[in-house]
Every structure is written in structure tokens, then in C-alpha cells.
Amino acid sequence: MRTNKSLILLAALPMMALANVPILGTVESKCVIQTDTSGVYGNPSPSKLSTDATSGGVKPIVRYDILVADHYKAVVSYPLSFSSSPELEDVVNWTGAVAVGQTSDAAMSAFETSKVSYNNTVEFDLSLTGSVWFDVDSEAEYGYDKSFPAGDYTAMVLAECIAQ
């Protein structure tokens, strides 16, 4: 049983207020990707486009700057289609490769020996800090000995830095 005295004490207690206060944060990648060299397709035969220098091409080169080791992997894919081209009526057969080129640390050559390749994609564990340049080869052959139509052709290399 409550007495008047206990009712007075309850009435004297302050009302509680609640608030949700946000905490915001921004995470910046410690892995930076830069285009070092844009690729160019050479046309060594009517049915072939190639980034190989002996075919008149230029290999695209992608630079990764790794600020923190062992937290990222590089995932680089050579093209399997044109992002723009004249209309093509036959299949285009694609081949390519991705390899470690220049490095800021000689120990980064280990990236090449431990890479994982599948389909048109190559993964590299970025286990050291510094800069590494990946050379990308790309070749497209049109149909069975067909000539590519005249025009401009563009294909894209996909370069990603995936947090682990």
C-alpha cells in the first residue's frame, strides 16, 4: 500500500529522455589503382587485334600502390568483349594474360609465382607494401579468318583491389 509520502517521491523523479547519436566514419582504401599506360590494339592481320608490340600494339599497364600489406588482393581481368566497336556478325575469340611487370621491391616478384588464374582473371595476394605494375596482354581474332570491319575498337581491362 502506498502512502502519500511515496507518491510524492515518485512524482519528484525526473522524466527520462533518450536519444540515438550517430557515429560516422569513412574508410579509405590502402590500395590505390592507377592507369600507367593505356593499351592500343595493333592490327597485324585483317582478322587479328593484339596489344603485342610485335603486332604494332601497346600493352596496358596498371599500377597498384599498396599502403598496407596482407590486407588486399589485386584482381585483374583482360577483356572478353569490346565495349565499343563496329557491328560484328561473327564470334570474336579472345586470349590474354596478366603478369607482374615492374616492382618497387624485388621481393614482389613472388606475386607472379603465387598468382591464381581462372577464366580471363588473375588474382595476386598483395603481401608487401610498395608499387607493382601489372602488364596485360589482349588479343582478339575474328571468326574463322574473317576481316574485322574498319572502325574504332575499344576493350576494357578490369582492375580491382579487394579487401581481405
Question: Which descriptors apply to this entry?
Answer:
164 residues, mainly beta, four-stranded antiparallel beta sheet, 10 strands
Low-confidence stretches: none
Quote the beta fraction: 35-45%
Overall morphology: elongated
- The counted number of beta strands is 10
Sheet with the most strands?
6 strands, antiparallel
String of helices and strands: HEEEEEEHEEEE
The end-to-end distance, rounded to whole angstroms, is 63 Å
**Into which percent range does the helicity of residues fall?**
under 10%
Structural category is mainly beta
Quaternary = single chain
- Overall pLDDT: 93
User: How much is the radius of gyration in Å?
Assistant: 28 Å
- Count of DSSP helices? 2
What is the topological layout?
Layout (H helix, E strand, L loop, with lengths): L3 H9 L18 E7 L4 E4 L2 E3 L10 E6 L5 E6 L14 E12 L6 H4 L2 E3 L2 E6 L3 E13 L15 E6 L1
Antiparallel strand pairs: 1-4, 2-3, 3-9, 4-9, 5-8, 5-10, 6-9, 7-8
